User: Fold this.
Amino acid sequence: MNNIGSILLLILLAITFVQSGYEKTMYWNDNVAWLKKHFEKTPIRNMVPSSLFLVLVLEIVSGILCISGCIQLLVNNVRTFGLYGAIFSCITLLFLLLGQRMAKDYDGARTIVIYFIPAVMAVYWLS
Assistant:
């Protein structure tokens, strides 16, 4: 139980990104339609599907690395995958934050920062 704080943060990030990736995959067309409207006045208005795919990949990679990191911490007390998962989570959240700021969705951006704080904590604790 030496790494319980790190494990809990990795579980939080894994749930966040695996569930979000699942929803993007299962409701792709709905997401693209909503995001096209959301970003219609931004420089990425014509890149919504490719941007969404990039975020989807980042979320899935982040989630898988966080799950792998939890397992690795529990089995042999090694932090490598957890650290990579936390770093990828931060990168993913920064991409999402950039998008929300470009769309002038400041409430959405504020929500992303709420997730970013524990992700940075995980990077700190696992490095």
